[in-house]
Amino acid sequence: xxxxxxxxxxxxxxxxxxxxxxxxxxxxxxxxxxxxxxxxxxxxxxxxxxxxxxxxxxxxxxxxxxxxxxxxxxxxxxxxxxxxxxxxxxxxxxxxxxxxxxxxxxxxxxxxxxxxxxxxxxxxxxxxxxxxxxxxxxxxxxxxxxxxxxxxxxxxxxxxxxxxxxxxxxxxxxx
Length: 175
Hints:
Low-confidence stretches: none
Helix content: under 10%
Number of helices: 1
CATH architecture of the largest domain: Beta Barrel
Strand order of the largest sheet: 4-3-7-1-2-6-5
Shape: elongated
CATH class of the largest domain: Mainly Beta
Largest sheet: 7 strands, antiparallel
Order of helices and strands: EEEEEEEEEEEEEH
């Protein structure tokens, strides 16, 4: 069985489409994951229980959506069962050379490491402003807002859900 921690969330099934059991997948990533893992998707059916499903076809819709048809839906009668389910791909299928930026991922739950300040924290939420994203981070039992900016990111590890930041101490003191 595949562990949810070994997977990357790519979106959520938002609605039915058409009459052929098609679904609209609202994407939360901005990279071509279907060129990586187009054989299998995993649905979070019960808070961590992942059900493998096999897309028989998919069509790109607007940049943030995709139309998907599953060939092996176990519950053919209850289409609504699949609505609002999170969709994942196994991280092991993502090649290291894949050009993914942290701003393209759902970083909620990731560990933030700031080695220069000897601080670690957990991302509890993401605020998407018009011009930038802010990581809502729990550090030393305090909520800290950190801009998700390429100048602050030194490295990140998708498999271990870890992002390394070089944040000026004054930025942490603003919070």
